[in-house]
Amino acid sequence: MNVIGTSLLLSLNNNVIQITKLILEKMKNISFVFIISTLLIVMTLLICSFLYMCFLFVGHEFNPDFFKIDSCLDNGGKWNYDNKICEYE
């Protein structure tokens, strides 16, 4: 590699190091409480979503087609459990 290529690589490397240092300095300003509260909100949403899916499963008598049943009922249909189809009147 020639001298110009080497100096160009060193210059790029120094720029990357400076940018990384700036990013790390900015990240220090982020409050620990903000990060923890955000994580708690995300965890709460995930747990609520999981509990909602469990509620649907139990509410539809542990039927493996509970997503189809829920969609049918949401669209105003009536679920036929014998034929496993949605009926509209």
Q: Uncertain regions: pLDDT < 50 for 5+ in a row?
A: none
| Class by SSE composition | mainly alpha
Question: Kindly state the mean pLDDT as a whole number?
Answer: 81
Q: How many domain regions?
A: 2
Written as H for each helix and E for each strand, in order along the chain, the element string is: HHHEE
Distance between the termini: 78 Å
What's the total helix number?
Answer: 3
Strand content: 5-15%
Strand order of the largest sheet: 1-2
- Overall 3D geometry? elongated
Based on the structure, what is the oligomeric state of the protein chains?
A: single chain
Structure notes:
By secondary structure, the chain is mostly helical. It folds into two domains: 1-28; 31-89, no CATH class. 71% of the residues lie in helices and 7% in strands. The protein has helices at residues 3-28, 32-59, 66-74, and strands at 78-80, 85-87. The longest helix has 28 residues, at 32-59. The radius of gyration is 28 Å and the shape is elongated. The termini are far apart.
